[in-house]
Write the structure tokens for this entry.
Amino acid sequence: MSQSRLYLTAGRLEAERIFRLVEVEFDDDGIPVSLLDVEDNDVFEVSIYAETEDIDDVRTRMLAALGSDLFGLELHQEDLPDIDWVTHSLGVLAPVEAGRFIVHGSHDLAAIKAGQIPIQIEAGLAFGTGHHGTTSGCLEMITDVVRNHRPRNALDLGTGSGVLAIAVAHLAKVPVLATDIDPVATKVARENVHLNKAAGYVLCETATGFHRAEIRNAAPFDLIVANILARPLMQLAPQLSRHLSRGGDVILSGILAEQ
């Protein structure tokens, strides 16, 4: 579905006031509003983004919310190209080296060095291209844990793109169960597993926490990797412990420094 942008330019103080009024008006709608410094001479741009079919209604509400605060400023409309911005933005990212691994796109095959384990992850809808510190940190820890403890099986909980499951499979050559609560992520992970020739080791399943027969049947796990968020990690901790083998390893990430 195509999108459009309504925008106006003003001085900093005026733009900040307009931004606050528009933000309050559309806060409950989840419609994005931005304030951007577009020139060095204190000129700012206030923009609001919406589906093109809704843009007339958004304009009407925006003008009503601003009223006299618009002060004669002209409201412009720009129809945005129908581009997959996730793929467009991530497609130009440089390869990431972490531990034994290099995570790269198809355009970076020449960057692979001797001795590195390449994992090809194209830009997509699931989390995990290696560029986020949580992902690269997990890849470094996987390198250490697999080298020192030689797990016999593994669970990648909240697999996202499947990058961590693929990493364990390539390095340890053991069965890996990769699960995610989001079926889109599971589909993406399964495609990445095949792309990286790891289908002989990695099974991808959609699951909420540990509620899946495949998890119960494969447990206990020598290695559990979970790169999600602190709150779900806390909630899942008792089940995680029960599904871990004696002396097994856990790699957790997605935890903020203040947590």
